[in-house]
Write a structure and sequence with these properties.
Length: 322
Protein backbone atom coordinates (compact mmCIF):
# COMPACT_ATOMS: atom_id res chain seq x y z
CA UNK A 1 0.00 0.00 0.00
CA UNK A 2 2.80 2.45 0.87
CA UNK A 3 4.56 1.75 -2.42
CA UNK A 4 1.30 2.26 -4.31
CA UNK A 5 0.66 5.60 -2.58
CA UNK A 6 4.23 6.72 -3.30
CA UNK A 7 3.83 5.90 -6.99
CA UNK A 8 0.50 7.70 -7.19
CA UNK A 9 1.95 10.79 -5.52
CA UNK A 10 4.84 10.74 -8.00
CA UNK A 11 2.34 10.49 -10.85
CA UNK A 12 0.47 13.44 -9.32
CA UNK A 13 3.56 15.60 -9.78
CA UNK A 14 4.05 14.40 -13.38
CA UNK A 15 0.39 14.92 -14.32
CA UNK A 16 0.32 18.40 -12.81
CA UNK A 17 3.50 19.31 -14.70
CA UNK A 18 2.03 18.08 -18.01
CA UNK A 19 -1.28 19.92 -17.57
CA UNK A 20 0.39 23.19 -16.57
CA UNK A 21 2.80 22.90 -19.50
CA UNK A 22 -0.01 22.35 -21.98
CA UNK A 23 -1.97 25.27 -20.53
CA UNK A 24 1.05 27.55 -20.75
CA UNK A 25 1.67 26.51 -24.36
CA UNK A 26 -1.94 27.17 -25.37
CA UNK A 27 -1.94 30.58 -23.70
CA UNK A 28 1.36 31.51 -25.33
CA UNK A 29 0.11 30.47 -28.78
CA UNK A 30 -3.26 32.23 -28.57
CA UNK A 31 -3.60 35.89 -29.64
CA UNK A 32 -3.74 38.59 -27.00
CA UNK A 33 -6.71 40.93 -27.53
CA UNK A 34 -5.40 43.37 -24.93
CA UNK A 35 -2.20 43.86 -26.92
CA UNK A 36 -4.09 44.86 -30.06
CA UNK A 37 -6.33 47.20 -28.07
CA UNK A 38 -3.36 48.86 -26.33
CA UNK A 39 -1.36 49.30 -29.52
CA UNK A 40 -4.37 50.69 -31.39
CA UNK A 41 -5.00 53.21 -28.62
CA UNK A 42 -1.36 54.37 -28.63
CA UNK A 43 -1.32 54.74 -32.42
CA UNK A 44 -4.52 56.81 -32.31
CA UNK A 45 -2.88 59.10 -29.77
CA UNK A 46 0.07 59.65 -32.14
CA UNK A 47 2.48 57.02 -30.86
CA UNK A 48 4.64 54.70 -32.89
CA UNK A 49 3.29 51.21 -33.62
CA UNK A 50 6.52 49.31 -32.89
CA UNK A 51 7.28 51.31 -29.74
CA UNK A 52 3.78 50.70 -28.41
CA UNK A 53 4.09 47.00 -29.08
CA UNK A 54 7.50 46.81 -27.40
CA UNK A 55 6.33 48.75 -24.35
CA UNK A 56 3.36 46.43 -23.93
CA UNK A 57 5.59 43.36 -24.17
CA UNK A 58 8.01 44.79 -21.60
CA UNK A 59 5.15 45.59 -19.21
CA UNK A 60 3.72 42.06 -19.48
CA UNK A 61 7.12 40.33 -19.49
CA UNK A 62 6.59 39.08 -23.04
CA UNK A 63 9.96 40.41 -24.24
CA UNK A 64 11.71 37.48 -22.55
CA UNK A 65 12.34 34.23 -24.44
CA UNK A 66 9.53 31.68 -24.26
CA UNK A 67 11.68 29.18 -22.37
CA UNK A 68 12.62 31.80 -19.78
CA UNK A 69 8.97 32.70 -19.21
CA UNK A 70 8.04 29.03 -18.95
CA UNK A 71 10.81 28.35 -16.44
CA UNK A 72 9.84 31.31 -14.27
CA UNK A 73 6.19 30.25 -14.19
CA UNK A 74 7.04 26.68 -13.24
CA UNK A 75 9.41 27.77 -10.49
CA UNK A 76 6.74 30.12 -9.21
CA UNK A 77 4.17 27.32 -9.14
CA UNK A 78 6.45 25.12 -7.04
CA UNK A 79 7.37 27.90 -4.61
CA UNK A 80 3.73 29.13 -4.38
CA UNK A 81 4.79 32.41 -5.96
CA UNK A 82 2.08 32.34 -8.60
CA UNK A 83 2.93 35.68 -10.07
CA UNK A 84 1.16 38.99 -10.51
CA UNK A 85 -2.25 39.42 -12.09
CA UNK A 86 -1.92 42.24 -14.60
CA UNK A 87 -5.67 42.59 -15.07
CA UNK A 88 -6.45 42.77 -11.34
CA UNK A 89 -3.24 44.54 -10.23
CA UNK A 90 -2.70 42.16 -7.31
CA UNK A 91 -0.88 38.88 -6.58
CA UNK A 92 -2.55 35.82 -8.05
CA UNK A 93 -2.76 34.13 -4.64
CA UNK A 94 -4.71 37.09 -3.25
CA UNK A 95 -7.11 36.98 -6.19
CA UNK A 96 -7.78 33.29 -5.59
CA UNK A 97 -8.19 33.75 -1.84
CA UNK A 98 -10.75 36.49 -2.49
CA UNK A 99 -12.71 34.41 -5.02
CA UNK A 100 -12.85 30.89 -3.59
CA UNK A 101 -15.27 31.60 -0.67
CA UNK A 102 -17.95 32.69 -3.15
CA UNK A 103 -17.65 29.39 -5.03
CA UNK A 104 -17.70 27.37 -1.82
CA UNK A 105 -20.87 29.11 -0.59
CA UNK A 106 -23.03 27.58 -3.32
CA UNK A 107 -20.95 24.54 -4.37
CA UNK A 108 -20.81 22.92 -0.91
CA UNK A 109 -24.57 22.79 -0.24
CA UNK A 110 -25.18 21.78 -3.87
CA UNK A 111 -22.74 18.87 -3.55
CA UNK A 112 -24.19 17.69 -0.23
CA UNK A 113 -27.83 17.96 -1.36
CA UNK A 114 -27.21 16.29 -4.72
CA UNK A 115 -25.23 13.42 -3.18
CA UNK A 116 -27.70 12.65 -0.39
CA UNK A 117 -30.90 13.07 -2.41
CA UNK A 118 -29.49 11.60 -5.60
CA UNK A 119 -28.35 8.38 -3.93
CA UNK A 120 -31.51 8.11 -1.82
CA UNK A 121 -33.84 8.60 -4.80
CA UNK A 122 -31.76 6.21 -6.90
CA UNK A 123 -31.94 3.46 -4.25
CA UNK A 124 -35.68 3.96 -3.82
CA UNK A 125 -36.20 3.88 -7.57
CA UNK A 126 -34.18 0.67 -7.88
CA UNK A 127 -36.10 -1.12 -5.12
CA UNK A 128 -39.44 0.05 -6.62
CA UNK A 129 -38.64 -0.68 -10.23
CA UNK A 130 -41.36 0.00 -12.85
CA UNK A 131 -43.53 1.78 -10.31
CA UNK A 132 -45.05 5.22 -10.70
CA UNK A 133 -42.36 6.67 -8.42
CA UNK A 134 -39.64 5.05 -10.54
CA UNK A 135 -41.03 6.58 -13.73
CA UNK A 136 -41.32 10.00 -12.08
CA UNK A 137 -37.73 9.82 -10.79
CA UNK A 138 -36.44 8.74 -14.21
CA UNK A 139 -38.29 11.60 -15.91
CA UNK A 140 -36.81 14.06 -13.41
CA UNK A 141 -33.32 12.64 -13.98
CA UNK A 142 -33.58 12.93 -17.76
CA UNK A 143 -34.85 16.48 -17.38
CA UNK A 144 -31.95 17.42 -15.09
CA UNK A 145 -29.34 15.89 -17.37
CA UNK A 146 -30.77 17.41 -20.55
CA UNK A 147 -31.39 21.00 -19.46
CA UNK A 148 -28.34 23.32 -19.83
CA UNK A 149 -27.21 25.01 -16.64
CA UNK A 150 -26.87 28.45 -18.20
CA UNK A 151 -30.38 28.29 -19.73
CA UNK A 152 -31.93 27.12 -16.46
CA UNK A 153 -30.11 29.91 -14.61
CA UNK A 154 -31.37 32.57 -17.03
CA UNK A 155 -34.89 31.13 -16.75
CA UNK A 156 -34.78 31.34 -12.94
CA UNK A 157 -33.56 34.94 -13.07
CA UNK A 158 -36.33 35.83 -15.51
CA UNK A 159 -39.15 34.16 -13.54
CA UNK A 160 -38.13 34.57 -9.90
CA UNK A 161 -36.02 37.70 -10.28
CA UNK A 162 -37.63 39.86 -12.96
CA UNK A 163 -41.29 38.78 -12.85
CA UNK A 164 -41.78 37.79 -9.21
CA UNK A 165 -38.95 39.74 -7.57
CA UNK A 166 -38.16 36.96 -5.10
CA UNK A 167 -34.41 36.81 -5.80
CA UNK A 168 -31.84 39.44 -6.85
CA UNK A 169 -31.20 39.65 -10.57
CA UNK A 170 -27.45 40.04 -9.99
CA UNK A 171 -25.27 38.85 -7.14
CA UNK A 172 -24.28 41.60 -4.69
CA UNK A 173 -20.84 40.89 -3.23
CA UNK A 174 -21.14 43.70 -0.66
CA UNK A 175 -23.78 41.73 1.26
CA UNK A 176 -22.48 40.07 4.48
CA UNK A 177 -21.79 36.37 3.97
CA UNK A 178 -23.71 35.20 7.03
CA UNK A 179 -26.97 36.99 6.34
CA UNK A 180 -30.43 36.07 5.10
CA UNK A 181 -29.97 38.35 2.10
CA UNK A 182 -26.90 36.39 1.02
CA UNK A 183 -28.77 33.10 1.49
CA UNK A 184 -31.59 34.48 -0.65
CA UNK A 185 -29.30 35.33 -3.55
CA UNK A 186 -27.50 31.97 -3.32
CA UNK A 187 -30.68 29.88 -3.58
CA UNK A 188 -30.94 30.12 -7.37
CA UNK A 189 -27.32 29.19 -8.26
CA UNK A 190 -27.40 26.36 -5.70
CA UNK A 191 -30.55 24.94 -7.27
CA UNK A 192 -29.09 25.17 -10.76
CA UNK A 193 -25.96 23.24 -9.78
CA UNK A 194 -27.95 20.77 -7.68
CA UNK A 195 -30.34 19.90 -10.51
CA UNK A 196 -27.68 18.63 -12.90
CA UNK A 197 -25.68 16.88 -10.17
CA UNK A 198 -28.64 15.15 -8.52
CA UNK A 199 -29.82 13.82 -11.88
CA UNK A 200 -26.51 12.11 -12.66
CA UNK A 201 -26.21 10.79 -9.09
CA UNK A 202 -29.73 9.34 -9.23
CA UNK A 203 -29.28 7.58 -12.57
CA UNK A 204 -25.92 6.09 -11.57
CA UNK A 205 -27.06 4.94 -8.13
CA UNK A 206 -30.22 3.38 -9.59
CA UNK A 207 -28.26 1.47 -12.24
CA UNK A 208 -25.73 0.28 -9.65
CA UNK A 209 -28.33 -0.74 -7.06
CA UNK A 210 -30.29 -2.75 -9.64
CA UNK A 211 -27.36 -5.17 -9.83
CA UNK A 212 -27.90 -6.14 -6.18
CA UNK A 213 -31.69 -5.90 -5.75
CA UNK A 214 -32.22 -9.49 -6.88
CA UNK A 215 -28.90 -10.85 -5.66
CA UNK A 216 -28.90 -14.12 -3.72
CA UNK A 217 -27.61 -12.57 -0.50
CA UNK A 218 -30.44 -10.00 -0.60
CA UNK A 219 -33.00 -12.78 -1.04
CA UNK A 220 -31.40 -14.66 1.82
CA UNK A 221 -31.62 -11.61 4.07
CA UNK A 222 -35.29 -11.23 3.16
CA UNK A 223 -35.93 -14.92 3.91
CA UNK A 224 -34.33 -14.48 7.34
CA UNK A 225 -36.79 -11.72 8.16
CA UNK A 226 -34.74 -8.58 7.45
CA UNK A 227 -37.00 -5.61 6.85
CA UNK A 228 -36.79 -3.47 3.72
CA UNK A 229 -34.75 -0.70 5.43
CA UNK A 230 -32.08 -3.18 6.56
CA UNK A 231 -31.96 -4.85 3.15
CA UNK A 232 -31.48 -1.53 1.39
CA UNK A 233 -28.93 -0.01 3.78
CA UNK A 234 -26.90 -3.10 4.69
CA UNK A 235 -27.19 -5.44 1.72
CA UNK A 236 -27.76 -3.18 -1.29
CA UNK A 237 -26.30 0.21 -0.45
CA UNK A 238 -23.01 -1.06 0.99
CA UNK A 239 -21.81 -3.06 -2.06
CA UNK A 240 -23.16 -0.34 -4.34
CA UNK A 241 -21.14 2.27 -2.44
CA UNK A 242 -17.88 1.13 -4.07
CA UNK A 243 -18.83 2.17 -7.63
CA UNK A 244 -20.90 5.08 -6.28
CA UNK A 245 -17.80 6.61 -4.70
CA UNK A 246 -16.29 7.01 -8.18
CA UNK A 247 -18.93 9.53 -9.22
CA UNK A 248 -18.26 11.79 -6.22
CA UNK A 249 -14.95 13.08 -7.63
CA UNK A 250 -16.64 13.50 -11.00
CA UNK A 251 -19.38 15.61 -9.42
CA UNK A 252 -16.84 17.83 -7.69
CA UNK A 253 -14.98 18.33 -10.96
CA UNK A 254 -18.24 18.99 -12.80
CA UNK A 255 -19.03 21.78 -10.35
CA UNK A 256 -15.51 23.24 -10.43
CA UNK A 257 -14.83 22.91 -14.18
CA UNK A 258 -18.24 23.32 -15.81
CA UNK A 259 -20.98 24.57 -13.52
CA UNK A 260 -18.87 27.22 -11.81
CA UNK A 261 -18.08 28.93 -15.14
CA UNK A 262 -21.67 28.93 -16.37
CA UNK A 263 -23.40 29.69 -13.07
CA UNK A 264 -21.04 32.40 -11.91
CA UNK A 265 -21.08 34.20 -15.25
CA UNK A 266 -24.89 34.07 -15.45
CA UNK A 267 -25.52 35.14 -11.85
CA UNK A 268 -22.49 37.44 -11.58
CA UNK A 269 -20.90 35.59 -8.66
CA UNK A 270 -17.26 36.68 -8.20
CA UNK A 271 -16.00 33.14 -7.61
CA UNK A 272 -13.26 30.98 -9.10
CA UNK A 273 -15.25 30.25 -12.26
CA UNK A 274 -15.77 33.89 -13.16
CA UNK A 275 -12.19 34.68 -12.12
CA UNK A 276 -10.84 32.01 -14.48
CA UNK A 277 -13.24 33.01 -17.27
CA UNK A 278 -12.16 36.67 -17.18
CA UNK A 279 -8.49 35.65 -16.95
CA UNK A 280 -8.85 33.55 -20.13
CA UNK A 281 -10.66 36.34 -21.99
CA UNK A 282 -8.11 38.94 -20.88
CA UNK A 283 -5.07 36.69 -21.48
CA UNK A 284 -3.89 36.91 -17.87
CA UNK A 285 -1.51 33.95 -18.13
CA UNK A 286 -0.45 33.82 -14.47
CA UNK A 287 -4.05 33.82 -13.27
CA UNK A 288 -5.12 31.24 -15.84
CA UNK A 289 -2.37 28.83 -14.82
CA UNK A 290 -3.27 29.19 -11.16
CA UNK A 291 -6.98 28.61 -11.73
CA UNK A 292 -6.19 25.56 -13.87
CA UNK A 293 -4.02 24.15 -11.08
CA UNK A 294 -6.94 24.02 -8.62
CA UNK A 295 -9.21 21.55 -10.51
CA UNK A 296 -6.10 19.59 -11.52
CA UNK A 297 -5.19 19.15 -7.86
CA UNK A 298 -8.76 18.20 -6.98
CA UNK A 299 -8.90 15.57 -9.73
CA UNK A 300 -5.58 13.91 -8.98
CA UNK A 301 -5.77 13.96 -5.19
CA UNK A 302 -9.47 13.04 -5.28
CA UNK A 303 -8.77 9.98 -7.40
CA UNK A 304 -6.03 8.93 -4.97
CA UNK A 305 -8.37 9.12 -1.96
CA UNK A 306 -11.02 7.38 -4.03
CA UNK A 307 -8.74 4.41 -4.68
CA UNK A 308 -7.78 4.25 -1.01
CA UNK A 309 -11.44 4.34 -0.01
CA UNK A 310 -12.01 1.20 -2.08
CA UNK A 311 -9.98 -0.85 0.39
CA UNK A 312 -12.16 0.39 3.27
CA UNK A 313 -15.45 -0.20 1.47
CA UNK A 314 -14.43 -3.56 -0.01
CA UNK A 315 -11.75 -5.51 1.93
CA UNK A 316 -11.27 -7.82 -1.07
CA UNK A 317 -9.50 -5.00 -2.94
CA UNK A 318 -5.80 -4.82 -2.21
CA UNK A 319 -3.05 -2.71 -3.75
CA UNK A 320 -0.22 -4.57 -2.07
CA UNK A 321 0.75 -6.49 -5.21
CA UNK A 322 0.13 -3.69 -7.72
Amino acid sequence: MKWYIARRLAWTVVATFIILSLTFGLMAASPDPQAASYVAQQVQEGGDFEEAQESYERARGLDQPLWERYKNYMIGMVTLDWGWSETRSQPVTEAILEAWPYSVMYATPALIISTVLGVAIGLYSATHRNSLEDYAASAFAFFGISIPDFWFGILMILIFGVWLGWIPIYYHSDVPWFSLQNVQQLIAPTLVVTLSSIASEMRFSRATALEYVNAEFVKTAKAKGADSWRRVTRHIFRPALVPLSTILVGDILNIVLVSSYLVEVVFGIPGLGQLSYKAIIQQDVALVLATVLIPTFIAIVGNLFQDLAYTVLDPRISYGER
